Amino acid sequence: MRDEATFTVKSGLAEMLKGGVIMDVVTPEQAKIAEDAGACAVMALERVPADIRRDGGVARMSDPEMISGIQETVTIPVMAKARIGHFVEAQVLEALEVDYIDESEVLTPADERNHIDKWPFKVPFVCGATNLGEALRRIGEGAAMIRSKGEAGTGDIVEAVRHMRQITGEIKRLGTLNEAELPSAVKEIAAPLDLARSVAAEGKLPVVLFCAGGIATPADAALMMALGAEGVFVGSGIFKSDDPPARAKAIVEATTHWRDPERVAAASRGLGSAMVSLESSKLAGEQLLAQRGW
Amino acid sequence: MTEPLIGVLALQGDFEAHGRVLRRLGTHVREVRTPEDLDGLDGLVIPGGESTTMTLGVLREGLGEPIRELTAAGVPVLGSCAGLIMLDREHLAVMDILARRNAFGRQVRSFEADVAMEGIDGAPVRGVFIRAPLIAEHGAGVEVLAEIDGHPVAARQGATIAVAFHTELGTDDRVHGLLLDEVRAARARR
To answer: Which residues of A touch B111 (CB under 8 A)?
Structure first.
């Protein structure tokens, strides 16, 4: 018997991406550079987060023409972003047969109360989270992969670190609780009890956990792997830097060899300037993308 | 005899899942990222992942020739999904097969299916096919172990086994058991 779109099949693709780097690209040419540098997937979008920040306005799903162009150019998986709650954008991306949909806070939210019901889709979803409760609510809605949000388009790693430490810290704490203590703990973090129970027993999320938002250097990528990320999303960090092909290769190498400082050092040499960055702590509240999502 | 030491290529992909299966079967496991990591292995697993990423990693680390030497010396290898692609004529050229990448289509066409596999008794294996390849061509020295829609999806050549699907995400360890049978036979010959 053959079954398509089971949760094993959806979350399984994320398992195959582990230890890899997923790169934001806005043209087929950039997608080719990313593939040739060793990216395990690309995220097709119209503007990288740094430009979305600079230009302002409503950020939406990308032009299908552009997504198809990227799909025809590379053989690695192609992901694309839909606005939070915009299930029709997600249906369009499914019709285009993208390999993963990112219901992303980087785009302007379409629904201020509800996320997309992800269960009916054949395409798997990845969603951002700043803490364990948010991660488990997304998984409860059908997400098959989670990424810590960080603060996209800043080149500042501090929020990515905060969110990864928050998620892994809360996972450890759940593991110390007994069956009588779990219900009140899940009330505090607003998480589904059955998923919290599985996290407490396994000591990890039931899906793959990547990191995102602020990774600009090979050392940033290695840091996030050391903090518990199973792989890395790099947005503006590559194509807003001096030498994208070299930086892309270096981040791939550092993600594989994160335990070996000599290899991270070797990968970090001679890359030119990193992206122009913004200190997240100096951003005003409404400029913080990570707080989008409910 | 001590428990065998099995390497898992850990450049990118689901190498940890393969490590878990191998530990359940009682072997020692070593993650392989550089040629030195291949020293003293009794067997090797090339996991699922992105074959393009893995190919670039193998080039960067200079792992191609050492892996070919290892298999030429009779060390058994199991390749799964991207691992099957890595073993074909156009990649590591360890097996006389030609893989067709993403043969079933994009992720929306990924599926699970029961696979009746030569050498595995009892119930069929539940294979998880994720953007999976199939074996488009194979030489006379290659034994086909399983087919889907009339296309080979598992094969053996000597002590090298390739499967287009995953079983390591679940709890059926029989495909890895085939590798360990080869490992035991190879050690008995030494």
So the answer is: 2-4, 6, 9
